[in-house]
Amino acid sequence: MKKLIHIGAMLLLVLTTSSCLVGKYMCNYALVPTPHGSDEGEIQRTRHKADSLCPGVIAWYDDLVAQGEMRDTFIVGFHGNKVHAVYAAAKNPETAEGNAVVVHGYGDNHFVFLYLVKMYRDDFNYNVMVPDLQYHGYSEGDAIQMGWYDRFDVEKLAEVAHDIWPNDFTVIHGVSMGGATTMMMSGDFLPQYIRAFVEDCGYSSVWDQLKGNLKDSFHLPPFPVLTSASIVCKHRYGWSFKEASSVKQLAKCTRPMLFIHGDADDFVPVDHVYRNYEAKTQGYKELWVTEGSVHANSYQRHTEEYHARVKAFLEKAKSLTNY
User: Fold this and answer.
1) Residue 286, CA distances (Å) to 200, 255, 277, 313 in order
2) Is 108 strand, coil or helix?
3) Taking the CB of the first residue and of the last residue of the chain, which one, N or C, has fewer CB atoms within 10 A?
4) Are 124 and 198 in contact (CB under 8 A)?
C-alpha cells in the first residue's frame, strides 16, 4: 500500500510539474508573441496589411500626418505602461457628428483598421481616436491583455478625445480582440457621453477563445493545459481567462450596441456572437451576421452595407436617451 501511495504521489508530482511547464508555455504563446509592437518589421507589415484591406488608405493616413491633422498622443495606461494613440478631427470639424474610438485586434495596431478610421472621419464626419493597445504598435506592455485591462486604457483615451472635442456622443468601435475590448468596456461605469458600441467579431471570453484555438491548433482539451495557463496569467498579470468575459460585462450593459459577425468565421466562430447578443438583456441592440464573411472580413465583403448599417445604428443610438 505504501508503495502504491508513493507511486501515486510521484505521478501526481510529474503531472503537476508538466502542467505548470505547459501552462507557462501556453501563456507565453498566447500573450507574449514575438516579434511585436514597435519592431520596424511589424510596423511595415501592418502598414502593408492596412493597404491590402483598403487600397490607398496608407497614403491617405500619411497625407494627414504630413498636414499635421493626424497627431500622436501618449497616456499613462493601466499598470503604468505608456499607451500610444493617434487622433484627428472630423473632415469638417465645425459640424462634427461626435467622437469615434476605433480599437484594433490581436497582433495588430492603429494602422490595420484605418479603413474604419477613414469611414468615421471622412464619410460620417466624426472626430477619431485610435489607440495601440498594450504590447502593440508604439505602446508599452509586458503582454497582450486580450481586452480585459485594455478596456481601461480605451476608457481613458475616450476621455482624452472628449477633452479635445467636447460633445455628447462617443461611439466605441472594435474588431476581433478590439470587439471583445469594446464589449468588456460596455459593462463598466462610464461617462454619459459614451453612448454607443459597435463590436465586430469579438469573442465571448478569453477562455472560450483560447479553448477553441487550443483544440484547433494543438488538438488538446482545456484541462489541464488551459487551466494551468490561466493560473499563470493570473499570477503574472492579475487576471484569469474566465474572468476576462465579454458575456459577463454585456449583462451589465445598458447602452446601444451593434453586433457584427461573419457566418464563415472559423477563428472566432459565429456562435460567439449569439452568446454575446443574448447576454445583453438591457437596452437597445442590433445583430448583423454577414453572409460568407471570414474573420474580420465583414467590411471588405459587404462594404456599402457595412457603411449603411453602422450609420443607421449611430442615428438610432443618438435618438435614445433612456439608459
Assistant:
1) 12, 12, 8, 8
2) coil
3) N
4) no
Residue 21's pLDDT band, with cuts at 50, 70 and 90, is low
Name the DSSP letter for residue 290.
E
Q: Which CATH number fits domain 32-205+244-319: 3.40.50.150, 3.40.50.12280, 3.40.50.1820, 3.40.50.11460?
A: 3.40.50.1820
pLDDT in tens, 267-309: 999 999 999 999 999 999 999 999 999 999 999 999 999 999 9
Burial of 187 (0-12, 13-18, 19+ CB in 10 A): buried
| pLDDT for residue 13 | 32
- For the segment 66-87, what is each residue's pLDDT rounded down to a tens digit? 999 999 999 999 989 999 999 9
Give DSSP secondary structure letters for 61-83.
Answer: HHHHHHTT-EEEEEEE-GGG-EE
User: What is the bridge-based pairing of β-strands 99-103 and 194-200?
Assistant: unpaired
The answer to whether residues 255 and 196 touch, using CB atoms and an 8 Å cutoff, is: yes
The angle formed by the CA atoms of residues 203, 151 and 311, to the nearest 5 degrees, is 70
Contact 285, 318 (CB under 8 A): no
Per the DSSP assignment, residues forming a β-bridge with 200 are: 175, 260
**What are the sequence ranges of the domains in the chain?**
32-205+244-319
Order across the sheet with 194-200: list the strands.
70-76, 82-88, 127-131, 99-103, 170-175, 194-200, 257-262, 285-290
250-268 tens-digit pLDDT: 999 999 999 999 999 999 9
Q: What is the pLDDT of residue 263?
A: 98
Q: Identify any residues that bridge with 197 across adjacent strands, giving them in sequence order.
A: 172, 257
- Beta-carbon-side half-sphere exposure of residue 248 (alpha carbons within 13 Å): 10
**Residue from 164, 162, 183 nearest 172 by CA:** 183
Q: What percent of the chain has pLDDT over 70?
A: 93
Burial of residue 266 (number of CB atoms within 10 Å: 0-12, 13-18, 19+): exposed
Q: How far is CA 283 from CA 99, 175, 252, in A?
A: 21, 21, 10
